[in-house]
Amino acid sequence: MNRQQSIIALLAAPLLLLTACSSDDTATVAPDGPAPILLGTSIAPTTRANSELQATELSAANTDGVGTFIYRNTKKAIDNEYGYENVKYTITGTDGDLTLATGETQPYYPMQKTSVDVYGYAPYLAVTATGTDPKYKFTGCTVKNDQSTDLGYMQSDFVSGVLSNLTYANRTQTNVIPLNHRLCKIIVKLTAVGTLTMLPTNLMGAQITLHNIKTKFDFNPVATDASGDPIVSNVVADGTNTDINMGTTGTVTVADASSLTTDEKNEVDKALTLYAVIPPQTLTGSDASPLDLFTVTLNSANNSAVYNLATKGTQQFEAGKQYTYTITVDATKLSFTTTITDWTKDDADQGHTGTAK
User: Fold this and answer.
1) What share of the chain is helix, strand, coil (3-state, %, to 5)?
2) Which terminal CB of the chain, N or C, has fewer other CB atoms within 10 Å?
3) CA distances, 112 to each of 8, 41, 82, 115 (Å)
4) Distance between alpha carbon 103 and the CA centroid of its chain, in Å?
5) How far is the C-alpha of 202 from the C-alpha of 156, rounded, in Å?
6) What is the reported pTM?
7) Contact 339, 347 (CB under 8 A)
8) Cα–Cα distance, 25 to 176 (Å, whole number)
9) How many other CB atoms are found less than 10 A from the CB of residue 195?
10) 209 and 225 in contact (C-beta within 8 Å)?
11) 36 prior amide bond cis, ω within 30
């Protein structure tokens, strides 16, 4: 929302052609006149790898766009009539290129040429707050129940970041908002025991469902922690546990399923890996009441066997981390290990077991 004096908009009108940006763009603006804020995005290269999505995950295929809040440096609200709230950008390329969405007001640097902070997030959410509620607090956000497609996965991957102390001296260049993952990534890798009764080919076309997930969360892209990172608040405790459809494993043709070459093994491993994004939360089971976590359903060619994996302990999912479940399938049971990483560091594996029904 543009709160600058109306004369700025009139003086700056010829500069509106500069709103389409990329990470390498520069622009020529008047040395002392109003200057548009040129923005792009970047994100850690974490993808739904088996589908070979763009490294940014912010490709034009993600039609929800990017939202931005721009205030004077160190301010988190309209100050002296300056501020832009929830300005929408569309994604025009594969590297986080941004173009101002239709009908949006072009953000400009303050008349006083003071620096600004830019808060960005994706996917874009429409403002629904009323009264005195801050327009930048979103409640009841959700991830997709069906993440079997690339788009369903991308639209569940909530990202945000802050570009602090952006100065008027940066007016001739595109300024990149560093976006980071704020939810949790779940990776399921199926593997066979390698006997005649259970080979990798038996796991192709298997359906994987993640159970007992709360899909709702609240988010305030302007709230930051001691490190300056945006805060994802607690999952909404609405009492509703939901299934997440992670999709179906792929199919790879191999000459001998009992003896794979290195290339074949890599292709099979890729085909047998599925992904999902969930909000931070804690799942708790017990000896008396195990909590279902995954269901693996083999396809009809493999007798439609159904495997349930339940936890008798606590599964804690923290924001900004990924959890890799490597599930080994036998004819009558399954076992799995869990690896927790923050995209760069590995933690110790933890072993668990489950049974087929």
Assistant:
1) 10, 40, 45
2) C
3) 12, 26, 10, 9
4) 26
5) 30
6) 0.79
7) yes
8) 11
9) 10
10) no
11) no
Q: What is the distance in angstroms between the CA of the first residue and the CA of the last residue of the chain? A: 57
**217, 212, 259: which is closest to 240 by C-alpha?**
212
- Residue 7 dihedral angles phi and psi, to the nearest 5°: -65, -30
Separation CA 191–CA 271 (nearest Å): 11
Percentage of residues of the chain with pLDDT beyond 90: 33
Q: Which two tokens stand for residue 330?
A: 């036998």
Q: Do the Cβ atoms of 147 and 275 come closer than 8 Å?
A: yes
Question: CA-based angle 208:181:319, to the nearest 5?
Answer: 75
- From the list 272, 251, 201, 243, the residue with the least C-alpha distance to 49 is 272
Q: Which two tokens stand for residue 118?
A: 């830019």
Report which of 246, 233, 290 is spatially closest to residue 272, judged by C-alpha positions: 246
Six-digit token string for 114: 């003071």
Q: What is the DSSP string of 274-288?
A: EEEEE-SEEEE--SS
Q: What is the pLDDT of residues 21-51, one digit of tens each?
A: 333 444 444 556 689 999 988 764 434 443 3
